[in-house]
Amino acid sequence: MRLVASVFVLAMAASAAHAQVQLDPDTRRPIGPAGSRPAAGGSPISSFGGLSSFFSSSPVPRQTVSFAGKHSPGSIVINTTERRLYYVLGDGQALRYGIGVGRIGFTWAGVHHVSEKREWPDWTPPEQMLKRRPDLPRYMKGGPENPLGARAIYLGSTLYRIHGSNEPETIGTAVSSGCFRMRNEDVIDLYSRVKVGTKVVVI
After folding, report:
1. Could you identify which of 13, 77, 100, 162 might form a hypothetical disulfide with 181, taking C-beta atoms 3.0 to 4.6 angstroms apart as the criterion?
2. Cα 157 from Cα 113, distance rounded (Å)
3. pTM of the full predicted structure?
4. How many CB atoms lie under 10 A from the CB of residue 50?
5. For the residues 97-101, what does the mean pLDDT come to?
6. Domains along the sequence of the chain with CATH
7. Catalytic residue numbers?
């Protein structure tokens, strides 16, 4: 009887702790009990440090699929409605990746070209994001805790990127501020295939 009571108390405590966790609208990271957030200059994702959560399974597995269209092999097509990214292989096929896209008010469409590629990119939040989240660090060195993940593919002169994420549970959802996030294994794979100058079509 005492054992059952102890288990019940522990379960209730865990449930209460979970109920207090809130997710940040930009990073989707827990922001602590009662809405607390890290101090300016601190890491917004310090509670997710280490590599254990860095490489993990995705709810949307990468796979080769049939792909109709007139896009040249080697180009990228991002379908924000489907929340999928296609790397065109040619001969009616493409590699399909699951992605996280911009939330309501942050979606966009257009044609750009890859202007830069970076491994373990540093992160400098743009002014627009800092206005919404003044508590964010002004600069964050690349690494496992960086919100941009293992790789970043920059899209023309825009502020947007295709980049990795430590949050595979957000793949297939609309949570970002306009960037396209992938699980780290997938962005590493895509990075190895993409060249500077690659055409990127966002629909």
Report:
1. 100
2. 9
3. 0.70
4. 9
5. 97
6. 6-202 (2.40.440.10)
7. 163, 179
